[in-house]
Amino acid sequence: MRIKYLLTISVMASLLVGCNDKEKVTDVPTNAPADQSTAQQAGDNVTDQAAYNFVEFSLDVDYSATESYEVEYEDKRSGIEAKLEDDRNNIRLQGDEAYTKLDPLFKQLNFDSTTPNDEVIDQVIKVFNIEDNYQSIEVEVEFVDGNEKEFKRIK
């Protein structure tokens, strides 16, 4: 009987640890992008509601084996998740702090799923102020229209 209780407690503790909400944005502005699936369920026009042209955005810039600049953004049904890590400036932001920093940058991006690779990378370099001495840049995007694309540049 004791083993059953210990096993139950262990499983519950594991589930709680797995439910990490640090990256969740809790203070979402009213003009924040709408989740595509939620907007479609409500019968709304997705492009009218989305603040950005994408629902997921991932940026990985490698400067060296130990220095990188990373951005993660997801607009899910359960909410927005955002993360920014900049090794060169020792910045680690998650949730509301990351979203606040990333929102004005995302609003400057105007590429879509038909934009050529070089144009997307050039735009990301400019908007995120990426230093020229990077080794590689990788951008993964899921657009509002459902298309997913990956853009890369290696020096």
Describe the 3D structure.
By secondary structure, this protein is α+β, with helices and mostly antiparallel strands. The chain has one domain. Helices cover 32% and strands 29% of the residues. The protein contains 5 helices and 6 strands; from the N terminus they run H-H-H-E-E-E-E-H-H-E-E. Strands 4-3-2-1-5-6 form a 6-stranded antiparallel sheet. A hairpin with a 4-residue loop joins strand 3 and strand 4 (91-94). Mean pLDDT is 79; it is low at 2-20 and 33-48.
Topology:
Elements: H1 2-18, H2 36-41, H3 46-49, E1 54-62, E2 68-76, E3 79-86, E4 91-94, H4 95-106, H5 117-127, E5 136-143, E6 148-154
Antiparallel strand pairs: 1-2, 1-5, 2-3, 3-4, 5-6
Q: How would you summarize what this structure contains?
A:
The chain is α+β, with helices and mostly antiparallel strands and 155 residues long. The chain contains five helices and six strands. Strand 1 (54-62) and strand 2 (68-76) form a beta hairpin.
Helix content: 25-40%
Strand tally is 6
Numbering strands along the chain, what is their spatial order in the largest sheet?
Answer: 4-3-2-1-5-6
- Biggest sheet character: 6 strands, antiparallel
CA radius of gyration is 18 Å
Please tell me the total number of domains.
1
Termini gap: 62 Å
Q: Which whole number gives the mean pLDDT?
A: 79
Uncertain spans:
2-20, 33-48
Question: Strand content of the residues, in percent?
Answer: 25-35%
Judging from the principal axes of the Cα atoms, what is the shape? Answer: globular
Query: Can you count the helices?
Result: 5
Pattern of helices and strands: HHHEEEEHHEE
Structural class designation: alpha+beta
